[in-house]
Amino acid sequence: MDVKNSGKGVARGMKAGAQHVGAAGQAAARELTHEAAPQLKALARVGYASKGVVYGTIGLLALGVALGRGGATTDAQGALLRLQDLPLGTALVWLLVLGLVGYALWQLIRAALDPEGQGTEAKGIVKRVGYAVSGVGNLALALFAARLAMAGSAARNQASEAQTAREVLQLPGGQLLLGLAGVALLAVAGSGLYTAWGAKFMKRMNFAGAPKPELLKRIGQVGIAARAVMLAIIGAFLLVAAWRNRAGIVPGISEVLTWLREQPAGNVLLFVLALGTLLYGVWCVVQALYRRIRVEGSAAS
Fold it and tell me: Which residues are 125's β-sheet partners?
């Protein structure tokens, strides 16, 4: 009995110790974030602007295809490749590396320290997990951009969404994991459409002194809705791929735009989504200018 009680005491002690270490680590992270807050806020704004350049490029290229001006649809990596080819393109890509790293850090801070007060209820946890995934994804894109700036177009990553899905399907329970990813994307898309419809994002904006705030709000609504539609299409393809155990049908942004063009009235559909993607890029730049960014402490919504 004494041994049993002693074991329970050790377990409780270990749990309490782990909680103490976790709390101490989070407190240290909050203190460090507080000290670096001005720099992190500036990086976050550069990050929103960088994201806007990437999505704006994707939208412009897709608009050219929809209007019959040639070219091809592309994704974020393809957009960086196109920007690299511009005069002073390497310098521009290095600026985008800085911005994408800044945006990734901002997203990871939102996930870990919850400065916007999303909380620990189910809805808040889902949002914070989404921020974390976004942070990791933007770090990967920043790494690609850095390799591109150093080595040119030879640094293009050959991995595609279909290849990634194929690797997931090879894991134990891979079909379930891929299906869950599809459900998660559909959930994020639904949340985006809800946010766009009700302009829920306005509580994060400070348009005092901004020109035409109503127009800026409409740009946000259209841009966020377009991105949500894109995510919904990818999520639906993920579900089908999981059901059929076929990774080859999983699309990225470029493939979604191409698929739209192949549908009845495809050029119209492509034009609408391309314009929306361009406006999402504009909206990212608007956020760089007018979004309330808080990286230190916890804030109520």
Answer: none
The amino acid present at 7, given as its one-letter code, is G
| Nearest-10 crossing angle of helices 122-151, 76-84 | 30
Distance CA 225, CA 198 (A): 11
Selection from 178, 183, 180, 186 nearest residue 245 by Cα: 178
Q: Which long-range contacts (CB under 8 A, 24 or more apart) does 88-95 make?
A: 90/149, 93/145, 93/148, 93/149, 94/146, 94/149, 95/46, 95/50
DSSP three-state, residue 292: coil
Residue 137 · residue 188 · CB < 8 Å:
no
Tokens 């914070």 — which residue? 128
Instruction: Give the three-class secondary structure for 209.
Output: coil
What residue type is assigned to position 182 of the chain? G
Q: Which of 288, 277, 286 is nearest to 224 (CA)?
A: 277
pLDDT digits (tens, 9 = 90+) for 7-62: 455 445 444 544 554 455 556 556 656 566 778 889 889 999 999 999 999 999 99
Residues contacting residue 274 through CB under 8 Å, at least 6 positions apart: 59, 62, 63, 65, 66, 257
Cβ atoms of residues 73 and 43 within 8 Å: no
CA–CA distance from 24 to each of 29, 37, 290 (Å)? Answer: 9, 19, 34
Q: What residues are paired with 205 via a beta bridge?
A: 291
H helix runs in the chain, sequence order: 2-35, 37-66, 76-84, 89-112, 122-151, 161-169, 174-198, 213-244, 253-261, 266-290
Report how far residue 113's alpha carbon sits from residue 115's, in angstroms, rounded to the nearest whole number: 6
Residue showing tokens 């041994």: 3
Give residue-wise pLDDT tens across range 64-82. Answer: 999 888 778 888 888 988 8
Chain Cα centroid distance, residue 46: 15
Q: Among candidates 171, 73, 94, 185, which has minimal Cα distance to 134?
A: 185
